[in-house]
Amino acid sequence: MLNIEQFRYGDNLGYLIYGKTQALVVDGGAWQKILSFGQKNNLTLAFVTNTHQHYDHTSGNEHLLKATKAKFLGFVDLTDNKEIHVDSEKIMVYRTPGHTDDSVCFHAGSTLLSGDTLFNGTIGNCFSGNLKSFYLSIKRLMALPDETIIYAGHDYVRDSLAFARHLEPENMDIDTFWNSYDPDDVSSTMAEERRINPYLRFNEEPIIKLLQKNRLPLSTEWERWKSLMSIE
Ligand SMILES: [Fe+2]
User: Fold this and answer.
1) Which pLDDT tens digit goes with each residue over 29-50?
2) How remote is the CA of residue 102 from the centroid of ligand 1, in Å?
3) Which of 46, 158, 167, 172 is the most buried (most CB within 10 A)?
4) How far apart are the CA of 207 and the centre of ligand 1, in A?
5) What does DSSP say about strands 111-115 and 89-95: parallel, antiparallel, or unpaired?
6) Are 165 and 171 in contact (CB under 8 A)?
7) Predicted local distance difference test score (pLDDT) of residue 232
8) Residue ranges near ligand 1 (ion) with Cβ within 5 Å
9) pLDDT tens, 200-212?
10) How far is the CA of 225 from the centre of ligand 1 (A)?
11) Strand residues in the chain grouped as ranges (E)
């Protein structure tokens, strides 16, 4: 089985996915903490990689690569459905363009490292400008089972939930999630996302009513999602 350790630096969240002896670093901005965790647990850092190439996610790469013999996996190495092996256990790569063209997610066991594609309670900004591919990436992640644990690239929980409440004032699941929020272990399950994250709720009645009230196009899923993205 693979384990996950979360490393906060500011509101950024980076990760180590590790087995008994090997580890993969994803977004290692907290490189000092990661190195000492690796040492303490006798782990060989085998790979260093990123969910996308924004500097707040890649800032630890050089330090980690200098301090270890880890192999760097860049975007060209992260092809869709590629398997990365850590202690002969597999981690799947999903290309999820939208936030940026080079955004990827890492799926290990029942956990998903979702970068700035899917956050706990919201989704990323569409810096790529390609809303349609962002929508398809979100749809792809929505197909994951309820028990999937979402580990995102930032802790935006407070602001995300405030906005989700603004859109759906009567959704009590948002408050339930806020009450279980732990800044030392920021995550959610896909089941929780389906209950609280407006950008996954474009087929739910309260969201459809909201779109009607705003006189936005809503006849297809894609229209509803796009309309929802336009609400500020
Ligand atoms: Fe980003």
Assistant:
1) 999 999 999 999 999 999 999 9
2) 10
3) 46
4) 26
5) unpaired
6) yes
7) 87
8) 54, 116
9) 999 999 999 999 9
10) 21
11) 3-9, 12-18, 22-26, 44-49, 71-73, 83-86, 89-95, 104-108, 111-115, 118-119, 122-123, 149-152, 188-189
CA of 20 to the centre of ligand 1 (A): 31
Q: How confident is the model at residue 185, as a pLDDT?
A: 97
Task: Write the pLDDT tens digit of every residue in 72-131.
Answer: 999 999 999 999 999 999 999 999 999 999 999 999 999 999 999 999 999 999 999 999
pLDDT for residue 132: 98
Q: Terminus-to-terminus CA distance in the chain, angstroms?
A: 42
- The ranges assigned to domains in the chain are 3-197, 202-232
**Distance, CA 116 to ligand 1 centroid (Å)?**
5
Q: How far is the CA of 177 from the centre of ligand 1 (A)?
A: 24
